[in-house]
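Entry 12.
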Amino acid sequence: MHTAIVILNWNGKAFLKAFLSPLLDSIASTPEAEVIIADNGSTDGSIDFLQAHYPQLRLILFEQNLGYTGGYNQALAQIKADYYVLLNSDVQVDSNWLEPLISFMELNPQAGICMPKIRSLNQPDYFEYAGACGGFIDRWGYPFCRGRILSHIEHDHGQYDTPIEIFWASGTCLMIRAALFHELGGFDERFFAHMEEIDLCWRAKLRGQQVWVVPQSLVFHVGGGTLSNDSPKKLYLNYRNNLWMLHKNLPKGKRFVTLTFRILLDYLSAFVYLIRCKPTLFSAVFRAHRHFWKGRGQVSPQARGTVGHIWGKSIVWRFFLKRKKLTFDKITFPLQ
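Predicted 3D structure (tokens):
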């Protein structure tokens, strides 16, 4: 089975210098795997560096930044493989990270997407924010992870080392069957970046596909390599895209109530930013909502039913209002 590991690079020369060589070493004994770099119009000398030091690698070059969604869609349209691994440039892989993912997919044909366990490169004993050990959402569409609930990140002491079915896999490192990616039409390019992998996984689950985390595979993520966590642009994209995702994928009977309540919670969070003297974040939330309403007609609802692995309670209520810092093992599903 041919596996294409595709790194979408945008001004990530420093990360390529640090992490590309160990990545290539990690797959040296896996001849059916290859690394391909798709470049989103970098201006930091990334291409010159790659051509000088890694001339054997295939490069796919774009003249401008097409975002995570457009960059990957256009790159994967040019790559023939059985599996795609979408890997951020700011990821350091463990020496035996790929084989557990391939083996899991080979043994579990019902799984269309899977991901490794993700720890923080800066704090290697802790899970990393962007995915941790598998993603879920609550009843109002807030993402959380096995190992990370909102801003509370757990120490990894092996408590989540069992593979389980999840709701979403992190775009930090995501393996997907190539046929499924193309069947789904790839990422929704209107998202540009952020929440696009949750939308992709949701659409896959609506087609009967499963999404899993395989903790026997381990990678380490720098995080915030493109946009920092306090970036107004990142906040804007997260708020807007989350609303688009809910509008697209929720069943008709739940769409109105969920979106109404979620919008009220977003407005509440905006005023919290204002009270904390963060006017740019306050403005980002309202800009996101304005563009959600403006673009809502172009993001048509498509859901045909419900899917599992959505927590029927509210993470925000438990975390902020009840002042309880939850860990995933304390969450009792039923999943709705």
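Annotation: The chain is about 35% helix and 20% strand. The two ends are 35 Å apart (CA to CA).
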